[in-house]
Design brief:
This protein is α+β, with helices and mostly antiparallel strands. It has 4 helices and 8 strands, in the order E-H-H-E-E-E-E-E-E-H-E-H. It has a 4-stranded antiparallel beta sheet, with helices on one face. It has a 4-stranded mixed beta sheet with strand order 7-6-5-8, with helices on one face. Strand 2 and strand 3 form a beta hairpin. The chain starts with 11 loop residues before the first strand and ends with a helix.
């Protein structure tokens, strides 16, 4: 006798922050400031003013970003596609997905688009069951079985608290 699988919901909804907000202590700001000053000094010493401008703009962006509070975004999966906030992505526009679930550090779904112009999309799963989301998405989108870890950019971003 075979086990009957539970039926999947017709829609899955949850809320995610617009971007991850990391706790940054005083020492984080000291180290970022020191690194910025060292890189700016090197750029000026070598007369590479474009590099200096890039370092300055990067530091300014990181500072402004750290003062912003992320807005909550609603995420929904249904029979038509993926909806994030007021943007809808039909399943035909999605190439593949994979889920990385290693609580408490990483609980995310990564989505690749068919268009090479669109970047990879990472969504936090929050308190959602990754098995249910995986089974739901497999109905419409190919699962990328070659990927089993988060991208290096996400790991570095989390490690550096950017």
């Amino acid at each position: 006798m075979s086990k009957k699988q539970p039926s999947l919901p017709s829609m899955i909804q949850w809320t995610v922050p617009e971007f991850p907000q990391y706790v940054r202590g005083q020492w984080w700001y000291v180290w970022v400031g020191v690194c910025t000053l060292v890189l700016l000094s090197y750029a000026v010493y070598t007369a590479n003013f474009l590099f200096a401008l890039i370092i300055f703009m990067g530091a300014l962006i990181v500072f402004l970003h750290s003062t912003k509070t992320p807005s909550p975004l609603s995420v929904a999966l249904d029979g038509r596609g993926l909806t994030i906030g007021d943007r809808q992505y039909p399943y035909r526009d999605l190439r593949s997905f994979w889920i990385v679930y290693d609580p408490p550090d990483v609980q995310a779904i990564h989505i690749l688009f068919r268009s090479s112009v669109k970047p990879r999309l990472s969504l936090q799963l929050m308190d959602q069951n990754p098995v249910v989301i995986r089974e739901f998405l497999r109905q419409f989108v190919e699962e990328n079985l070659k990927e089993d870890d988060e991208p290096l950019t996400d790991t570095l971003s989390r490690f550096l608290r950017l």
